[in-house]
Amino acid sequence: MTRVALADDQALVRSGFWLILELAGMDVVGEAAYGRAAVELAREAQPDVVLMDVRMLEMDGIEATRRIARAGLPSRVLVLTTFDLDEYVYEALRAGASGFLLKDAGRERLVDAVRTVAAGDALFAPSVLARLVAHHVRRPPAGAAPPRGRLADLSDREAEVLRLVRRSLSNAEIADELVISTATVKTHVRHLLQKLGLRDRVQAVALAYESGLL
After folding, report:
1. 90-132 confidence digits (pLDDT tens)
2. Ordered alpha helix ranges (H), 57-200
3. Of 39, 55, 58, 92, which is most buried with the most CB atoms under 10 A?
């Protein structure tokens, strides 16, 4: 059973998500109204997924996401945002978020997103990634290696897989597209992440945008 923690400063939003996820057969292990409380909840309950709002008091969702990632916790963070041009969401990607979802995405999309992220795949609303990354693409982190130079280490097949990851395709969909096995896709994804020194698929897509590859 997928275990989920909720972090949002609006009680009504948390209640709604709690009901939706429980009806879908998931175990909601707790809720937090502030970023600092979300980090503590992740430490104590170690859920599979933390649904993380961006704008919260005391500590925002970006810093909370960063602390969860740096602590090496098994929880993956799915960032929730009201606006697909929220200027803070891209920073959450750099902080280690595993996906992005608009709050008005709908019940089925929310459940599918949580399951996808819990399974280890990245999930993001295309409008969030495409528009936000394009908007912030000229702001690489200080001291980072030149993006295009890092991508040059990828094999042709790994670069091809990265292009398909950018299209939000799952491992199974990439396997169908390239006529290879899902296990082979996972191997290619793992290798390209290792070569690029990245945590997950979302960060790989951001790097590909910054390099001009995509």
Report:
1. 677 778 888 888 888 888 889 988 988 888 777 766 666 665 5
2. 61-70, 89-95, 107-118, 126-136, 147-151, 156-166, 171-178, 182-196
3. 92
Residue 39 to residue 7: CA distance in whole angstroms: 9
Q: Are 134 and 196 in contact (CB under 8 A)?
A: no
How far apart are alpha carbons 140 and 155 in whole angstroms? 23
φ/ψ of residue 94, rounded to 5 = -65, -30
Using N-to-C axis directions, what is the helix angle for 182-196 and 171-178, rounded to 10°?
110
pTM above 0.85, yes or no: no
Angle among Cα 8, 97, 160 to the nearest 5 degrees reads 145
Question: Residue 30 and residue 41: Cα distance in Å, rounded?
Answer: 7
Comparing CA positions, the residue from 53, 54, 31, 56 lying closest to residue 42 is 31
